[in-house]
Design goal:
Number of strands: 4
Structural class: mainly alpha
């Protein structure tokens, strides 16, 4: 499958969701001018696709390369924007093409999510839902974050698909809610079925006296 990457401006939260870098780190990269933002100052703190590539690479190889060597990596990419790999020393080759592919796939997922998610006045108090449903998107993302599998979520919300669960995650990351999350009962919504989930995986076993 060929993914066509379309240029757009990203908010720091959207940049974090697409690059899979913490939003705090995105702001840090902007403040410290780690990334050379290509957008004009009147666009605020928005980032471009090129900025996202540098953001992903900066933190992706941060534990391996010094800041100086990472900057040299950026310089090499600037000299050849279409380069697939960059050899940074005798033992390490950075796969720039793979980073671009990952960013393009997540950017397309975010665009897809924005096409199928909407806020409608009078539907769950304007809470974002999937089109033609009353399923609150942020609730799905929260349940997934708490340990539920996509299959378990679909069992409770039969109108959803596996892809919709994925889209709920990236959309919610790109559009963080302000204030306390509202419960389903507060939204006037209910699930079609329920299943108690065990979230104790990996919990420490009590020691024996």
């Amino acid at each position: 499958m060929i993914i066509v990457q379309m240029s757009r401006a990203y908010t720091p939260a959207e940049a974090a969701a697409v690059s899979e870098v913490a939003v705090k780190s995105v702001h840090n990269a902007i403040d410290k001018r780690i990334i050379a933002r290509r957008l004009s100052e009147d666009e605020g703190r928005a980032l471009s696709d090129d900025d996202l590539l540098r953001l992903k690479l900066w933190y992706g190889v941060g534990s391996i390369l010094s800041a100086e060597r990472r900057q040299r990596l950026f310089d090499t990419i600037d000299q050849d924007p279409d380069v697939d790999t960059v050899r940074v020393d005798d033992y390490l080759i950075v796969d720039v093409a793979r980073a671009r592919e990952q960013l393009a796939a997540r950017a397309e997922a975010l665009r897809e999510a924005e096409r199928v998610i909407e806020s409608v006045k009078g539907v769950l108090g304007g809470e974002p839902v999937f089109r033609k449903t009353r399923v609150p998107v942020r609730t799905i993302a929260a349940v997934k974050a708490q340990g539920a599998t996509s299959e378990e979520i679909i069992e409770g919300y039969p109108s959803l698909t596996l892809r919709m669960v994925e889209l709920a995650e990236i959309w919610t990351a790109a559009h963080p809610a302000r204030g306390r999350p509202r419960k389903l009962s507060e939204l006037g919504a209910t699930v079609k079925s329920s299943k108690r989930l065990s979230l104790t995986i990996g919990a420490r076993k009590p020691s024996r006296a």
